[in-house]
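Format notes (please read before filing issues)

Several people have asked whether sequences and structure tokens are stored in separate files. They are not. Every record keeps both together, in the order shown below: the sequence lines, then the token lines. Line labels are part of the format and must not be stripped during preprocessing.
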Amino acid sequence: MISIIVTSAFQEHHTIEKTITSIISQKTTQQFELIVVTPDQKTIDVVEEFRKKYPRISIIRDPFLGKAVALNMAFKESRGEILILTDGDVYLGDGSINALIEPFKNEKVGVVSGRPVSLNSRSNKWGYFSHLLTDVGAHQTRIRRRKKNKMIVCSGYLYSFRKKLISHIPESALSEDAIISHVIFEMGYITVYAPKAIVYVKYPTNLIDWIKQKKRSAGGYVQLNYLVKNKERMRSFSKEISGIFRIFNYPRTVREFIWTVELPFYRLHLWYLIFVDITIKKKKFGEIWVKVESTK
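Then the structure lines:
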């Protein structure tokens, strides 16, 4: 049996229906339960409507203390040997569950990452950035590292792991996906990338939200220095600098090339903000993890 855990942020009643539909419509021979963790009544009401038809769906009210707290609650309630984690504002592609489960036939596999695909248009700068960073920064990097048998960090939008390996994650974690990936790797298990396990994601559409989202995701990698022993990293400021020339193979037009030139400066500013917040100001979880409106 597998447990699919959906963590929903505050008032995602507009998106959670599509998330759940994309899960329960999957063609799979795997028996699964679906656990939705959400903090607000509007979203709970939507999930309750699904429960009338699908009793295998359960609801946990999130105390709104952060994603890590919500996940720890779901871990305790889950009954599956394999856990699949995703969010309440994304939806799965056909066959994604099967693609996430298949690698576990190998007993050495501990965690499997899905592939985020951007729903944004490439016709504007922020949409273009989302495609470039998911296709080059994430997809191609994971493929390249798996070919070299190196550790990969799973995407928090969709990934799976053996429940027996993780029962609790630090409540201060900014990127629980990075923590779980590193801890399981440290145990001696293989981290796998399943590019056919597609999850569709809407990314930020303005600078303010882009900074908010990237600060908490990239900041989570900086936080790893304090939370895990292993020093192997898939992402870091130095790795971005060393791989910067790969992004210039991506643009199709002159406008996209100009945006590509701009991206490293945005990323440099981002890493500076992360360094100041975490290393200098030592900000706490709640000060960095803020809601991003334009991704809903």
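For reference, the curators noted about this record: The two ends are 31 Å apart (CA to CA). The beta strands are 2-7, 32-38, 57-61, 82-87, 91-92, 109-118, 158-162, 190-201.
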